[in-house]
Structures are given as C-alpha cells and as structure tokens.
Amino acid sequence: MIDLYYWTTPNGHKITLFLEETGLPYTLHPINIGKGEQFAPAFLAIAPNNRIPAIVDNAPADGQAPIPLFESGAILLYLAEKTHQFIPADPRGRADVLQWLFWQMGGLGPMAGQNHHFSQYAPEKLPYAIDRYVRETNRLYGVLDKRLADREFIAGDYSIADMASYPWIVPHQKQGQDLDDFPHLKRWFEAIKARPATVRAYARAEAINQQPSVSDDASRRILFGQTAASVQR
C-alpha cells in the first residue's frame, strides 16, 4: 500500500517507527544519500526538496490516484489521519500532539542536525559553532525532560510526536548529551526503545546500512555541497 523512500537517518526512522507500529503494509525503497541517489529524477518527482523520507500512498482514502508526499512531519500526520492512530480525535489532544510535532520539526531536528554537522562532519572544527549547537541541543533536551516530568509520553498517550522526537535522541552521545542529566527523558527514551515496533524498525535499518552516510570527501560534497543547480538540472 505504501512505498517508502528511505535512508537510515533520524528522519527516515520516524516513518518506519509508525509503519511498524500500525502494521500498515509498505515496501521500503532505500535511497543512499551518501551516493547521491536523492538527486535521481524519479525521486525528485516525489520529493522535490531532495531529502528523505518520502512516500507514495497507492491506496488513498479517496480511491483516486496515488498520493506522493515528502517531509517527515507531513508524512506522519498524513499516515496518522489515514489510519486514525497515534493522534487524538478530540481537538485539544490533537492540538497538543501537533504543537510537539512542530517543535521537533522546527527545533529539535534542525538544531541536533547542525550539532551533528559541526561536531562530526565539518572539515574544519569551529568551536563557536560546536558550542552554539551543543548548548541549544542541551536546552531542547531540558524542554523535553520537563515536559515528561508528569506524563508517560509527550502528549499523554504514545503518538506521532514521540515517533518524531525519539530518533533524534538516539545519537545523544554524538550530540554531546548525557541522558543521566535528564531522568524523565531517559525513562521515556528507554520505554520507546523497548517497544517491539521500535526494535523491528531499527533492525530494518541495520539490514540496509551500517555505515555513516558521510564516509569520505565525495559523500561530504554530495550531502553538504549542493546548490540550486543540484535540483534544477
């Protein structure tokens, strides 16, 4: 039913977490971003921002043509509405999930991503940039830890807000963070890590790729050296 275009990154894991939780049938299509497969015309037709993940729903609710979709947050919301799972039906509960989904999309993901870039991948180590993003990641961990002080999951019940955030906490050591400093977040993290669907999702990732996407100068140029011409050719 769902074609998932995927690579083994935090944003990719969000979607496999959802699909494994719901049992929604899907076919996984690896897009090796370190080799530039995200710039193939067929993929750009689905994901014009040349980023994974992307999906094609071959059986949309309206019974019409397949629906292509890119952006991990939009995909999670679409799938939650399609299956009526992992998002509340009531307006207040739905709003709570959505604000935390957007928090991850606009805050935790981008800041942790810049943290990874400057501390792990940048050819020149820039202390100011590393410190800036490690500190901001730390602040965001603190926001999440406080949120989880009086509830099991981010919005009460397990939801797409948790699925969006969890993969960005997995590489906490590379982000310069110690989960022991955030006891409520750590409890939440371990609970999600132990879910059978999480185990299955990450096992799929291991079967596809066990190497970092940035492994040499060529992959660094592909991932970090693109301009408008990369998607306009």
Write the layout of secondary structure elements.
Layout: E1 2-6, H1 10-22, E2 26-30, H2 41-44, E3 54-57, E4 67-70, H3 72-83, H4 91-121, H5 127-147, H6 160-169, H7 183-193, H8 196-208, H9 217-224, H10 229-232
Parallel strand pairs: 1-2
Antiparallel strand pairs: 1-3, 3-4
Helix pairs in contact: 1-3, 1-6, 1-8, 4-5, 4-6, 5-7
Protein name: Glutathione S-transferase
Keywords: Transferase
Pfam families: GST_C, GST_N_2
Morphology call:
globular
Give the overall pLDDT as a whole number. 95
Low-confidence stretches: none
How far apart are the first and last residues' alpha carbons, in Å? 31 Å
Portion in beta strands: 5-15%
CATH architect. name of the largest domain: 3-Layer(aba) Sandwich
Q: What is the highest CATH level, the class of the largest domain?
A: Alpha Beta
CATH superfamily of the largest domain: Glutaredoxin
Rg value: 18 Å
User: How many individual helices?
Assistant: 10
Q: Give me the CATH fold name of the largest domain.
A: Glutaredoxin
Element order: H for helix, E for strand: EHEHEEHHHHHHHH
Strand sequence of the main sheet, in spatial order? 2-1-3-4
State the total count of DSSP E strands.
4
This entry's quaternary arrangement is single chain
Roughly how much helix do the residues carry, as a percent range?
A: 40-55%
- Tell me the count of domains: 2
- Structural category: alpha+beta
> What profile does the largest beta sheet have?
4 strands, mixed
